[in-house]
User: Fold these one by one.
Assistant:
Number 1:
Amino acid sequence: MVGKRDYYEVLGVSKDTSKDEIKRAYRKLAKKYHPDVAENKTEAAERFKEVSEAYEVLADDDKRALYDKYGHAGLQGSFGAQGFDWSDFSHYQDISDIFGDIFNGSSVFDQFFGTSGRGPRSNRGPDLRYNMQISLDDAYKGMHVEVRVPKEATCEKCKGSGARPGTAPIRCQSCGGTGQVRHGQSQGFIQFVRIGPCPSCRGKGDIVKEPCPECHGRGKVPTTSKIKIEVPPGVETGSRLRITGQGEAGEKGGPSGDLYVVIFVKQDDRVEREGEHLYMTETISFGQAALGDDVEITTLDGTVAKLKIPPGTQPGTIFSLRGKGMPTIGGRGYGNLFVKAEVEVPRKLTTEQKNLIKEFDKKVAKRRKGLFEL
């Protein structure tokens, strides 16, 4: 993450900026750094990618929340091992409606998305979401788990073409294979152009005359995949893990989308969690509070920590055990465990115990009265 600029700084906005303002800022910068209009095309392409990465994060509520809390390290599960690339960009329409008319099908789409602004976006399959509920112990230690995910895979018989083996789809004559048709309408000096999916091929660009008997012309078949997932230590509710290429199969044998595993951590009866910090309550006796004591606390890592209760501890006093909280995402250390001391008042007392407490209370009251008389 070294050298990465702050995303808010990249877009020139503040942290409390609304999503609409973020979108306006991105559209302005995207036009400015479009490689087809900038003098230094190499530098412009890098800046164009940088502002698009910032927009991908800040325009997404989940990504933005992780970034606000953990910075760039919190997005390690959102992008691939090499960081952000154009396959991560999910706001294609926010670019196409800028450049599709202004630059008349600019090569920005070929350069970054592998397609033309006037044709279909790509054959990449849709992403999938899988919700996973884990215990606080699993969130603390991390875990490896294998899950079964129902999805659609590329038909092996036709290799995703949808056509019977030995045949091939034919290019749609209505749209010329682009999958889109343009409808123009003039009103005086103004011309309106509407672009929509081709009704003949349903936006696919080609037509299957002889469907594959296995997938019935769809190019995909339903399946259930076993996928191994590594849950890193420190995840919390809302954390997202990205499994590249494990989403739905693409059209016409195109690449699969990604699988996003969304983590939900169950509440624990022993402790409460706030980020990397843990909070718990420990009940101590009146004698321990008055005289002091060493109390053993079992932490989430299974070890026993000694909590020193000083003499005269008052009910509600909070103690901190450094480094005994949750691991932080990215392996940057541990949070703290905060222990609140609750003094237990006995409900049943013997006659002797009552007399001792009364005698003690008289002495305390007498000492307090003497202090006021001073």
Number 2:
Amino acid sequence: MDVLTTLPVNSVPSPMAALVALSVAAMAACHRSSMDGFDFPAPPLPPGFPARLHTEGNAIVDESGKVRRFHGVAVPDVLWIAQHNNASIGYFDERLFHTAWLWKANILRLSVMPAVYRRHGPEATLRALDVSVAFARKYGLHLIVTLHAIGYPPDGRYVSLQDWQYGELYQITDAEIAAFWDLIARRYRNEPVVAFYELINEPEHILPTGSFDALDDAGPWTRWRDYAERLIDRIRAVDPDKIIIVGGMEYAYDLSHVPQAPVRRPNIVYATHPYAVADWRLPWQKAFLDTAAAFPVFATEFGWGKGMEEERDTAPGVYHEAILQAFDTAGISWVAWSLSHVFTPSLLAKADFSATTGYGDVIRAALAQRA
């Protein structure tokens, strides 16, 4: 249930990046851009970074068997931002990753929207992600890569959101989904900085009328689970070891059917998006906390702000205090949406990363407390 404010932006892509050395088998050479001039000292890396991860029971663990908890922020469509790289849509440069490190995040979630991927293509997508990997490696950040579709792949129906430049942002075909994950898996199969693949952003059962299905029915989840398994098998044929994140229903909020019908593959984490207004039908306990007792759960988006104010939430207590406590108690990793001044709810008050919103202040403090 992330909210996007689309703004007119220059349709001519900006040059992308200075030459960035990657700690992978090859070097990624990118065009020079306004990233030139930002060269912050490299901080000490966390012990054991980057960790190779897998799941055990309801936990994410590293090669030594240590349970790993992740706390970070989400970057809206990294390809969109990288192509334009301006004050209207946001800046894609070292400041983004340096800011995440300053806030003491240990993970970034990077989204790629279907329409933006379709327009700019695989080469531009990999340039943006390769630069992200390089800076994430410098700052000790793991990454989630997400295909930012919202809808129901088994039926090929998606939420309609028109952008003046890109068209329907979330519409995508099965062939495009498969091609995207083929591309990502081949590129990052040997890159532990890219720790998670999240299949799609927010599964939601869309009816033929275009409205969404709010019934508490296991059928839509089971059909999505089966679709996800086929896609997982395709990815695993290329990259057998990466943890794959599968979102719940109701815009990735509802994981209540997972215990009875889990994904029948190893190394699976389940995504929930418990925004401040998400619990209108199911309370947190049923939606994801019961599931987290037996399965790994990761809140790959959450937040509050205009249109999803804390006081509208029906959970007990002040939303941000209650949700963070719920995550900590259940051992749930989390990523707050979003490190942007445009995509809402916004952590930033200015495009240049120099000011935060009140919401951003809370998340920055929460990250520091958990570092």
